[in-house]
Amino acid sequence: MNIESIENYLQKVQSVLGCKITLDQEDKISEIHIVSDLRRSPKQILRDIEAIMISEFNINIDYKKVSIAQIQSGSLKLDQDPRLKLKLIEYNNNGSNVMVKVALEKQGEIYESELLGVQTANNFKRLIGAVVLRAVEKYCDVTDVFVFEDVKKVNLANMEVMVVAMTSVFNGSEEIFTGTAKIQNDSNEAIARATLDAVNRHVLHLDLI
C-alpha cells in the first residue's frame, strides 16, 4: 500500500488543505487526519473521502477513522466565500395557511426547504426563520438541531433593523445565537437574512462527524 499516493490523492479533494495517514501494526490504515478550510461541511468532505478510498484504492474506510479539523484559510478568495447565502424566498397563500419556500446557495450548490403553517402575522415571521434553518440543516446533513426562537424589528441609527434569535442543540450543548439584517425593501427577506447571519458563523465551526 502506497500511503503517500493516497495522501496526495486525498489532498485533491475540494477544501482539503492537508492529509496524514497512520498505520497499525498490520500496516492497515488506523487513522486518516484531514485539515480543511471552511468552504464545505465535514460531512461533505467525509463523503468524498469515503468515495475516493473505495473507488480509487478499493479500501472501505470506517468513517470513525477519519478526523477532520477545520481552520480559517487566509487564502480564501471572494468567490470562495464560505457563508450560506439567500438565493430565493417565496410565499404562497392558501386560505388560512401560507407556504414559505427558501433556497440557499453555497459554492454553486442549492439547498431548498419549505414549510406550511397558519397565516398569522407572528407565525408567518416564525415560519420564515424556521424554513431557513431547515435549509441550513439540509446543508449540514442533520435534523432537529436548530430552533427559531424570536424576531423583533428595532430602530438603530435611523435605520430599521431586524433582529432574530435562534437556538442550536448539538452534542448535548445548547447555545443561543443572534443575527441582524438591515430592512431594505422587504422586511420578510430581512428576517431570512438575519437568520442566516445568526447561523452562518456557527455552522462554519460545527463539527458534524
Shape, per Cα inertia axes: elongated
Estimate the helix proportion, in percent: 25-40%
Largest sheet: 3 strands, mixed
Spatial order of strands in the largest sheet:
1-2-3
3D architecture notes:
The protein has helices at 3-10, 42-56, 121-140, 187-203, and strands at residues 16-23, 29-36, 66-70, 85-94, 97-106, 109-118, 146-156, 159-170, 173-182. α3 packs parallel to α4 (187-203). A hairpin with a 2-residue loop joins β4 and β5. The longest helix is centred in the middle third of the chain and has 20 residues, at 121-140. It is an alpha+beta fold. The model is unreliable at 74-80 (pLDDT under 50). Strands 1-2-3 form a 3-stranded mixed beta sheet, with helices on one face. Strands 4-5-6 form a 3-stranded antiparallel beta sheet, covered by helices on one side. A 3-stranded antiparallel beta sheet has the order 7-8-9. The two termini are 26 Å apart. The protein contains 4 helices and 9 strands, in the order αββαββββαβββα.
Which features would summarize this protein structure in a list?
209 residues, three-stranded antiparallel β-sheet, 4 helices, three-stranded mixed β-sheet, alpha+beta
What's the gist of this structure?
The protein is an alpha+beta fold and 209 residues long.
